Automatic annotation (TrEMBL):
<dbReference type="Pfam" id="PF00005">
    <property type="entry name" value="ABC_tran"/>
</dbReference>
<keyword id="KW-0812">Transmembrane</keyword>
<dbReference type="GO" id="GO:0140359">
    <property type="term" value="F:ABC-type transporter activity"/>
</dbReference>
<dbReference type="InterPro" id="IPR027417">
    <property type="entry name" value="P-loop_NTPase"/>
</dbReference>
<keyword id="KW-1133">Transmembrane helix</keyword>
<feature type="transmembrane region" description="Helical">
    <location>
        <begin position="520"/>
        <end position="542"/>
    </location>
</feature>
<dbReference type="InterPro" id="IPR003439">
    <property type="entry name" value="ABC_transporter-like_ATP-bd"/>
</dbReference>
<feature type="transmembrane region" description="Helical">
    <location>
        <begin position="492"/>
        <end position="514"/>
    </location>
</feature>
<dbReference type="InterPro" id="IPR013525">
    <property type="entry name" value="ABC2_TM"/>
</dbReference>
<dbReference type="GO" id="GO:0016887">
    <property type="term" value="F:ATP hydrolysis activity"/>
</dbReference>
<feature type="transmembrane region" description="Helical">
    <location>
        <begin position="457"/>
        <end position="480"/>
    </location>
</feature>
<dbReference type="GO" id="GO:0005524">
    <property type="term" value="F:ATP binding"/>
</dbReference>
<dbReference type="GO" id="GO:0005886">
    <property type="term" value="C:plasma membrane"/>
</dbReference>
<keyword id="KW-0472">Membrane</keyword>
<feature type="domain" description="ABC-2 type transporter transmembrane">
    <location>
        <begin position="358"/>
        <end position="543"/>
    </location>
</feature>
<protein>
    <recommendedName>
        <fullName>ABC transporter domain-containing protein</fullName>
    </recommendedName>
</protein>
<keyword id="KW-0813">Transport</keyword>
Amino acid sequence: MAPTIPNREPSFHNQHGTQATSADGEAPGENGGEEAAAARKRVVDVTKLGALERHVFIERLITKIEEDNLRLLTKFKERIDRMTLLLGPPGCGKTTLLKALSGKLDQSLKVTGEITYNGYKFNEFIPQKTSAYISQYDQHISEMTVRETLDFSARCQGIGDRADIMEEICRKEKQAGIIPEPDIDTYIKVVSEKDQEQYWQHHEVPYTFVSVDKFVNLFHKFHVGQKLTEEPSIPPTKAETDKKALSFDVYPSRWELFKACMDREWLLMKRNSFVHVSKSSQSIPRVPNIKQNYNPATWMLDITSPSSQALLGLDFASLYQESHLFKENEELVNKLRTPPEGSEELQFSTRFPQNGWQQFKACLWKQSLSYWRSPSYNLARFAFVTVCSLIFGALLWRKGKKIENEQDILDILRSVFIFMQFTGIGNCSSVLPFVAAERIVVYRERFAGMYSSWAYSLAQVIIEIPYIFLQAALFLAFTYPAIDLYWSVSKVFWYFYSMFCLLLCYNYMGLLLVSLTPSFQLASIFASIFYNITNLFSGYVIPGP
């Protein structure tokens, strides 16, 4: 039996089962249609699949990629129904070209001529709202699931989270007796967590997954330009030893996968020049067919390598510019660069789809999810404050009842100051890597025009307040009774207020340093300087010479 993955919206229930189809089953049309196909399927427990069944699982996942693809737009407008595969060795300008087309013109990039969209220049509309460049290393907030990330994007675009639509889909699935595929939902949850290796569901049974970075190595070789002769092979490490482990091999690129990726158009580049641009289904004159079971990407780089061109005495870039394919593409470019008759400039009444208040609410919702699901950040600082408060209270036990002169008061104040500084430094140091990890995502979303800088910054400032409030409350609850200071509303308030404001100051300084510096390491250096300045000029009386 071999599991199959239908193209269906995942659900958050029944995370053990999957549908299995007989490997030797006949096609539905040959044996009773859909009823016979349904009869050959059964629900199996994915945790009990053997190594061979896992092998078949990933094989079918790759070979049936064309059937699993869901086409959302078909012949929407003239030539939109196409996909171009861009290939080339490292450093030939693939990424630079794609970034330039999406409006990200690098300062070091020398541009000759003009870049237009349907005849309109960059300054006539906002290219970020019509095109985007998404890197293969593209990241999103690791604490948010894929569905929540899409909901956040929908909120920023004014669409809403579509929760009612999802509930309606789930309701109709139950009425029709459709069994959702839990393994798809498990995969989505795991790959939505950056570098997550284990996933716990409500039965507390761990599943070991191969990192998504290893799986997309199948595509790295097409985009980054690494050596295509290397074939990744990752053996199942726990498949035979742990029945609860779910692992799979990453296999070399198959022809079916490559065909699915370039079934529209393909663009072959070498350094600073185009070698070939055409439809993948076209037959190139005097070019033999690719050998059976030969890696297509390796074949392309082999025939266009400098050694092959030197052996043949040919320059494929020059030959392409003299061919009829180049002339046809030039005619197509000239046709597309001319605005159609009666068309108008693409303009937007506002820079952002939503007003400032809606942007702030969406960013605050996103920050609340991110902070709530970050125990390594929040629980760590809560535990740190709790332990330090207990130690501080033990050191100054009942000192409030033993005040006999001014020196005793100053001793308590010095101890409180040192403790506050120590706790503030811990907060600032912990917030630096947490905020720096989100900066790449923020840059991408801001460039796409999802929200303004102040909306995100204000949400980031507001979300820190309840966590800092709880830290200050823990400090007050442990230290004030232990020191046994004078009990009054005003004194307790000012004791709490001073700690609350100092922790906010340190946290906000960490946010500021990450925003002003290009890297986390540089922000840490400036944070160390800030620590020394606050220690020297905040509380100590420096005697004169």
